[in-house]
Amino acid sequence: MTEIVLPWQRRRRERLDGLEPLLRLDKPSVLDLGCHRGLVGYTFAMYGASVVHGCDIEKKSIDVAKALFADVDDCDSDFRVHDLAKGTIPFAKPSYDVVLMLGVYHKLKRQMAGVALEALVDLAVSRTDCFFAWNGVPEEVPIVSYIVDTHDMELLHEHPRDDPEQVTVVWARDPREQMRKIGSYDTDELMKRVHGDDSTARIAMDEHGYRIIRDDK
To answer: Can you count the helices (H) and strands (E) in the chain?
Structure first.
């Protein structure tokens, strides 16, 4: 078996930027729409998520996501190849604590009519009991905010990313109650825990695909 080290710290930081407080939730259920290789969902699972479901149009990405979760026994994981441009969500579960729509809006915008894309966002928001997290370009925030507001959700925080052309926004149902679930936290300490030294994290390639190798010493 040959081990190859990838820039996990940078990639994971980019995907999780602005989502760190949500990792403090107690055993949340998570739906990741446009999950790519499942890195965000995997991080939620490592922090105790009880359910992680994700979909992406790329089969290779879904294969990697499934491999990442192959040895995660205490999380109900399900990853499916699905084209969100169809305007549907491929899971029967009626609701989740956290619904993620990260970095996919601008791609769908090139494939879907405006009304159809707004309907998909509306559907995604309807599937969350607690939090809806989205990222994209700042100019798109008012459109998404208008849709989210119709579901009686309120802005929890808007987080500029390292890329000035990207922003992560998180909305919550009853923000005070949701913040109680998250609790108080030291942002710097939490960021260090999430994005700390990943020098021991590797991807190993074998006949079964890709697997995370963790060094917990």
So the answer is: 8, 10
| Protein fold of 2-213 | Rossmann fold (3.40.50)
β-pair type (29-33, 51-56)? parallel
Rounded distance, CA 160 to CA 168, Å? 6
pTM reported for the whole predicted model: 0.80
> Tens of pLDDT along 63-105?
999 999 999 999 999 999 999 999 999 999 999 999 999 999 9
Neighbours of 124 (CB within 10 A): 22
CA-CA-CA-CA torsion for 131, 136, 141, 147, nearest 10 degrees? Answer: -50
Domain spans of the chain?
A: 2-213
In the chain, the amino acid numbered 171 is: W
Q: Which residues of 182-208 are buried (b: 16+ CB within 10 A; e: fewer)?
A: beeeeeeeeeeebbeebeeebbeeeee
Which of 79, 93, 92, 123 lies closest to 29 in space, CA to CA? 93
